[in-house]
Amino acid sequence: MEKILIVGANGSTGKRIIEILNNSQSFEPVAMIRNEEQKTIFEDMEVQWVLGDLEQEDLSHVLKGIDKVIFTAGSGGDTGPEKTTEVDEKGAIKIIDASKKAKIKKFIMLSSMGADEPSKHKKLEHYLKAKATADEHLRKSGLDYTIVRAGALTDDLGMGKVKLAEKLDSAGEIPRDDVAFLLIMSLADPLVKNMTFEAVEGDEPIKSAMINLSKG
């Protein structure tokens, strides 16, 4: 069974991923949390946790015994540029570099649609620039990776159907449930290996959409 570190475990998407992985026969989730006050929810789920802060410290200790990483941490588009840079850019780069040193097998990054063209989205430009920088750092890191550039996240019930492409023709929304499944399915090798793609809700079942995308 592979151990999967969830960076951003206390966020809405991170919690969904942990709930799913906690019932998996193949993967065991490990929640990365910023302070011990956040541990209760994971202890109640009988999920292992580890303390780590993207903004402050050396992160090598959080990767001990870890096979793969799912990064869902984010400051959010409403956060100021300084905080966004610390978490979405510098924090992401820090854990990517630590993952490379730890010889992590695969790094799954939750990014955002628009990260390829930040200047076209003035209100979110600082956020998308940070995401773009982190994405590019991951692509050049030498790690096996998948970057999922999701549309606007909603709390709607996931329908398990999506539209995926390296570049979609229009923006859209996607339930967090479906994003969680996309990120989890990206753990499988060689599915969407070393690929960056955009994702919104659609008509194709997640599994077949990912297989078709992998085939090109």
TrEMBL record:
Annotated InterPro entries: NAD(P)-bd_dom (IPR016040), NAD(P)-bd_dom_sf (IPR036291)
Natural source organism: Salinimicrobium sediminis
A Pfam family per the record: NAD_binding_10
Domain NAD(P)-binding: 8-190
Protein name in UniProt: Uncharacterized conserved protein YbjT, contains NAD(P)-binding and DUF2867 domains
